[in-house]
Design a protein that fits this description.
With about 100 residues, the chain is of the alpha+beta class. It is about 50% helix and about 20% strand.
């Protein structure tokens, strides 16, 4: 029997996107610098991956200024939470099916 990978979400195949989503699943919102430091990403790398997740509707960003410094905070959307939970369940099901 071949394992069913139908519910594996390609949006989360990247280690960076998986990390971003994991961080946002357990926090109400997290700023750009914190995510960048936690995942050891460059500014450009985080900007690219977060933009992709935002375009998919999985996360949203809130840009503001604190004093004179720009601050971007990210949070997960209801759609993003549902998609990520579905992805994790699909991974768990796949791993369970590998019991030989």
């Amino acid at each position: 029997m071949k394992p069913n990978l139908e519910h594996i979400n390609k949006a989360f195949e990247s280690k960076a996107r998986l990390g971003i989503m994991s961080i946002l699943m357990v926090n109400d919102s997290v700023d750009f610098t914190t995510i960048k430091n936690l995942l050891d990403l460059t500014d450009g790398n985080l900007a690219s991956h977060s933009r992709n997740l935002e375009e998919l509707g999985y996360i949203k960003s809130n840009k503001q200024f604190i004093g004179r410094k720009p601050n971007t905070r990210f949070s997960i959307t209801a759609e993003g939470r549902e998609a990520f939970i579905s992805h994790i369940r699909a991974l768990e099901d796949f791993l369970k099916s590998q019991n030989l």
